[in-house]
Please model this.
Amino acid sequence: MVYKYLIGNPVETQAVVMDCPVSQEYPDYFSISTEDGFLMETVLGEQDLVYGLGENVRGINKRGWIYESSCCDEKDHDETKSALYSAHNFLIIDGVQTVGIFIDTPGDVVFDIGYTRLDRLSIRVSDGNLRLYVLEGDSAYEIAREFRRMTGQSYAAPRWAFGYQQSRWGYGSEEEVRQVVKGYQENHIPLDAIGMDIDYMERYKDFTVDRTAFPDFEGLVKELKEEGIRLVPIIDAAVKIEEGYDVYEEGIEKGYFCKNEDGSVFEAGVWPGWTHFPDVLNDEARQWFGEKYKMFLDMEIEGFWNDMNEPAIFYSREELDRVWEKIEGYKNKNLNVDEFFDLEGLFPACLNNRRDYERFYHEMDGVKICHKQVHNLYGYYMTRAASQGIEKFRADKRTLLFSRSSYIGMHRYAGIWTGDNKAWWSHILLNLKMLPSLNMCGFLYVGADLGGFAGDCTKDLLMRWIALGIFTPLMRNHARRNTRRKECYQFENPGDFRNLLKVRYALIPYLYSEYMKAVLEDDLMFRPLAFDYRSDDRARKVEDQLMLGKDLMIAPVYEQNADGRYVYLPEDMVLVRFRSDEDYSTEYLEKGHHYVEVKLTEVPVFIKKNHFLPVCSAASCTDQMDTGKMTLLGAMDREISYRLYEDDGYTQEIGNESHITEIWVDKEGRARAAGKELVNRILQM
Ligand code: MIG
Model:
């Protein structure tokens, strides 16, 4: 059951696609006040869990902290923070009351989930304008699925986007890109794509190519595609102010940039120096910006990533002036300690300053609206611009698209990556914990920078992180400039990475199948254990294992120098230790706690009893894969089957009955599937 309430005068966000009648009476388990903004409170029972909030810090269970929806270019993803790049205002209370809450407003929202008082949840929208949705259902999982239906079908990525992607801020020339590809090829490590960061642009201008460093960009795109490797360029939100630059000049001429209160065009400093922000909330401007992607489509580019769209602002004139003035005042002064700390913080305070978000305006449906009120929609609408522009010129095919900032609703147009994490062991776990929360909010094509964006990565960190990244739809190794190189071939014995990545490719048919089924059926690919084992109190508390698809559980190692980890099995399962695509061992484990040894060179996967995992042989890239021959892994004591979803991987033809291959294994262990050669390695119990 979904109840919708209209409070104040909210902006239409386009998060929800389902029609819901407006209710008047609030459920009695919430206390709601609209006197001073909007405030909603409820008591949390001792055993209640709170799920959701998508991309955020801390646990799968979100209790015990205060979170804020205010999209931010946040470079430190640590537990003292309250917000990252996206605003995913959906949560589920699983306990005495099992209820979902979606706060649909593009402005600031504060979720106090047991921060002020351990046993209280309160949600505040200070400007008091929102659509409130309350979802009732029998279980958290059911509510999550209801929410997925309400907000519409998730973006479907092309299959090649499930291949391994290598990226780095700093690939500064055609030669350097070729060398990276060569490093992979010479070491026989699979590779499907290279992320092109801002280095390919001319002076950080969107929709330009630096012709000194990339004189034949088009040629490079074609040459690599012949080897099965795609280039994926980045697009930034801000547009450089430069005479003669077409995007700038057109935007000015047509009035498509965000404005100051007095109608002049708003300026802020980002990568290219002074820039303007395309007013993607304005229909015409959005269409204009989106159509710019055509330039790359014409070069046969098939994927993009949208960055800096919170939007990130390094400085505005006003903030810089403030800094100069203060510095002037402090110059030659005998500073007291407060003044010194103030001085120290002046420049950092310019970045992503909230005062700047109050300075500029959009024109939405003919109405002038302050950015602050719609802040959390910017990344969504920039990415929607891209998606709709691409759709216009490449309608029949699927294009890879993922964004840094997002709001619920954007999941229909693209995926996300989780931004600038660090080369920290704790960030493997953070990566894991975000996955089910992101899925609840509709984001299925997701992944983190493997090995960490900032900081120097070590071989063991990258290997363990890859052993988690193997399961995420977006599997990309990306790094900040000036960090230690971490392409797989940069470390000793690159064969170790070859074997790990072969495991990924062996799993792609299953991962793609479960991903596409989640897309088509409004389901979740990753779930907390508690969603599947509701009445198992142990399972409800597990924060470092996930259910994946309908058949698997994953439990990666995330501690340095560990030779394994404790794993909780809510039922009997088969543990497969993959060492490569065709090299693995299986072990039957009973329900309960186990210490599972996992070598650095192994990837553990747990398969539920009477389920099986179909795997195939790896290849150098997804285009080269042959799924005609599959090996089945698991354990069974009765007849079992699996519906494998396979389509052509690149057209918009998805979800036909003909895309399903039913794989049957009868009681005697005879396996059959139309058009497949099967090798049965399922343990007979
Ligand atoms: O201010 O384009 O999150 O992935 O490498 C940094 C440079 C801008 C932030 C992105 C990161 C990317 C970087 N960008």
Q: What stands out?
A: Residues 495-520 form the longest helix (26 residues).
